Input
Amino acid sequence: MARLKIAVLISGRGSNLQALIGACSAADAPAEIVLVLSNEPAAAGLQRAAAAGLPTRVVPHREFTDRAAFDAALDRHLREAEVELICLAGFMRLLTDAFVERWRDRMINIHPSLLPAFPGLNTHARALEAGVRFTGCTVHFVRTEMDTGPIIVQAAVPVHPEDDADSLAARVLEAEHQAYPLALRLIAEGRVGVVGGRTVISDAAAPSEALLNPVALPADAAPDPSCRN
Ligand code: GRF
Output
C-alpha cells in the first residue's frame, strides 16, 4: 500500500518530530515524512530532520507582510511535495482560516493538555494551579478556533504532589511521543473518520479500568487533622 505523505511543521526543539521520524522509519510504517517545514531558521528540529535525511524548508514568517502571504508560501511547499497530511508539532504560528479550511481533516496538531481543558499556552502551570489530578496531551484535527477540533488520541498522566511545571511537562512530553505516532498510524491506516464534529476510529480498543489518583492509601495511614473541614 502507498504510504501517506506527511509534512511536519515545527518552530523549535522538534522532539515530537523525532517521535514521528522514529515511527515512519519502521519498514512497515504506513506514513512517510516528505517535508519538514519551519518558520524559524534556528529551530533545533531542522537538525533532527537533516540527520534523518529528510527534506527541509524554512519559511521565515518575518519576511512576509501578512499572514495570508506566509500561509500561501507554506501551501506552495506543501503542494510541491504532494503532502497529504500536515502534522503540526510545536508550530508556533497562527494559521489563517482559509489555510485551515483548505486542509480541513488533513491537518492535525498535538497539544499538551487534555482538551478541552487548558487550551492555549502555559498548560502545565495552569493544570497545577487548577489542582487537577490528571493531565496529558491531545492529538486533534485542526479547526479555525485555536486548540479545538475532533480529538483523535489522548494520553493521560498523573499529577504528583511534588510536581512543578517542568517536571509535569517532561511527563506529558513522554506521553506525547507515544500519542502522536499512534494518531498518525490510525489516520495513515485509514481508520479515522470525522462524523458530526467527532472522530470515529475503527477497530480501536479502549482501556476498561478507571484510573485513580491518589491510589488507595495504606490502612495505617494517619489522616492529617488539619485537613478536616
Ligand atoms: C509540545 O509540548 C507540543 O505539545 C506543543 O509544543 C511542544 C513542542 O515540543 N504543541 P517539541 O518541539 O515537539 O519538542
About this structure: The chain has a mean pLDDT of 96. The pocket of 5-O-phosphono-beta-D-ribofuranosylamine is lined by residues 10, 12-16, 45, 89-90, 110-112, 137, 173, 176 (CB under 6 Å). The beta strands are 4-10, 31-38, 56-58, 85-88, 107-111, 134-141, 151-158, 192-195, 198-201.
